[in-house]
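Hello again, I could really use a second opinion on something today. I've been puzzling over a protein and I'd love to understand its fold better. I'm sending you its amino acid sequence along with the backbone structure tokens. It would help a lot if you went through both lines with me. I've dropped the whole record in just underneath, so have a look.
***
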Amino acid sequence: MDNGPEGNHIDRVSGDEPLLSARVHRPSDLVRLLAGVLGIICVLAIAAFAHGTASGLEEDISKGTGQTPDVFIKLAGLISSIAVLILPVAFAIERLVKRDGLRIADGVLAAVLAHGVALATDLWVSDSAPATIREALTQATASGELTDPVHGYLAPVIAYMTAVGMARRPRWRVALWAVLLLNSFAVLVGRQTTPFSIIVTVLIGWTVAYGTLYAVGSPNVRPTGQTLLAGLRHVGFRPVTAMRAEDVPDSAEQGDRGRRYLVTLEDGPPLDVTVVDREQQAQGFFYRVWRQVTLRGITQRRSIQSLRQALEQEALLAYAAIAAGANAPKLIATSELGPDAVMLVYQHLGGRSLDSLPDEEITDELLRGAWRQVKALQSRRIAHRRLVGDAILVDRSGRVILTDLRGGEIAAGDVVLRMDVAQLLTTLGLRAGAERAVAAAVEVLGPDAVADSLPLLQPIALSRSTRATLRRLARERSQREREAVIEASHAAKAERGADEPVPSAGRKDVRAEKKAEKDAIEEALEQAREEDLLSQIRHQVLLIRPQALVEPARLERIRPRTLVSIIAGAFVAYFLISTLMANDVSDAIATADWRWAAVAVLFSVLSYPAAAMSLLGFVPEKVPFWRTVGAQVAGSFVKLVAPAAIGGVALNTRFLQRAGVRPGLAVASVGASQLFGLASHISLLMVFGYVTGTQHTPTLSPSRTVIAGLLTAAVLALVVTAVPFLRRFVVTRVRSLFAGVVPRMLDVLQRPQKLVTGIGGMLLLTAAFVMCLDASVRAFDSDVQLSYATIAVVFLTANALGSAVPTPGGVGAVEGALIAALTLAGLGGGVATSAVLLYRLLTFWLPVLPGWLFFNHLTRKGQL
């Protein structure tokens, strides 16, 4: 080896990264873009809905600055106007001198785009925006003209300065803010703009800048191997070569956890060096944000974390793991590699990852070694958070070493520690099988600790790579099952013998042959069916601890259904707020007849005994009536947290079971009630729709609306019947919902009194809601000309739509449908909105509190 001067060695880099892309798209720029768009929307919303606040703010500023000398205002305006133009030019000259012309090009592009967005906003505000927004963003001049809503020169300057990165340089940042504040002060005091206009201008420039940076990409500042060697020399090492870990035989896969190098020194053992830059740190940003939003009770690594914070976290976990007695890489040194990267220097360990080991080398002692490392970490309440195959290293002596501690957690809670156990059970089970993985865990951790992890043994608690592997295995199992069914079907046909059907064969023989083929297929499917890995692990643990709790823990904070509810609620809130601000709604509320509102309250209360009758009419067993009424009131609370069609079924089924009805019969009774309710709903809708269409005509000819509705229903039925996927979906849902309904209906038909009670309760329930809606309408328009048939059609249509959408109580869909239908029926927009708000207040929102009280009372009494 050449023993010349040190400088002859630090440039030898083997296996360095390929040519890096000149530009990268940073998720942080996208986040700032979205934040800017949201900020603009919020400012415009405040300007539109809080007009009094905007006007008051302008008046306060005008009073506070009214005594400012005119000379000072003009001087400030002159200086700031000149500085706003000179400052960007000065920064551009500095960057060009330092050969950073790409940033200047980015800034110019952002400035051009910002100017275009500013002009478009000016046109929108002048021509199409609501009057309140126009008043908030413009100011009348002495000549009577309006000022520009967005400053055509300030927005491009802000976009340029942001895109070129002036805000990241302290001296330039101070100058930038001084000029912006001075300019804003001058135009505000001079009554050339408004506060909201200044805010919108700044947000447009800022947003367009980050949108430009994300679209075209930012200059790539990732450090190369040459930078790494220079950084190692800076902290006292004498490196000779650096080789990317991906090119080192038997090295672990590194994924997105930083670039890793094997560095050889002039003297001493080699080093493992991890380099983390901003680009790698941003990988997985949106996934981490989604996990933070959706998972409850589980802390996650901060989604936006500085490089120094990432360095300190990994260093802390490395020292803590070694102090706990676990085998982990020993951290020797840390250092920054410029402003955009850091490095962590570890002792070289060597070895292979668990994923790269052949099956014959995964011994029981190796499995126990992995569990011993986890036990050592958990003795000091340290969570690894990523116990997958490439984070478990096995050296040449067979010693297990835990790597990739960067995402771990100090002082972890019980849930997170149990998640580590569940994750390692799955990781080892994928390589060695469920039985061996559980046996090694029980031997090291004990049966209780392993059993406690069962509620966390669910896909959402596992790592992303593990979930992907489980999904792949599930697809392979399904493929094997399909192949087994096809093979069994072919074998059954071959066994029948003849290719042509025998003419003398009777219908019974054909049915017998088909039944034999079906039995053969079912037997083959049963033999080919395999348990998934998680079920196998649960089974193995239950063999040791039969009393272990296996019900999955609730980890999700937000489910897709909840997200749909939030979005629907936001749209409804915007629609209702914008409608309520109209003068006709205010006038309707001011002139309301609250006696009709009292009548609406009575009909709303009547709906609960009617609902109890509609349920008890399909329950041959004796169930207390008033207790059933209480259960229906409790359903008002359940509707708030679950779709009405689902929450009501579950609550009534549970209530009947607690009342002594056998589970199967309880489900059948509720199913029969639902089936009759559906038939009643459709029948009433057709009848009232027919009456509505004929009440203004001399002949009883059906209306076009009814005919169109029937044709639409027929077309939908044909589509569902023709498409196999939809047909199977509908048949499966209907079969599961109404299983056992027919025998239950036969029991009810033998008791005409029960049948009359059930059908009468359904009709009374519909009548109560229709009369409640009618009274709500009359509360705001006592001379309304809408017939009861029209009100009934409006209610039945909106109720069907509310049951179809996956929002609690049909929030959003019911209100929108009711308002639209009443408006189409001829009711004024203000009256329709006010009536619907009162109706929903009485039938959905106000009953929530008594529903919660009844729900808790019945639960404590063991009746729910």
Q: What stands out?
A: The two ends are 82 Å apart (CA to CA). Residues 278 and 400 are 31 Å apart (CA to CA). The first helix runs from residue 27 to 49.
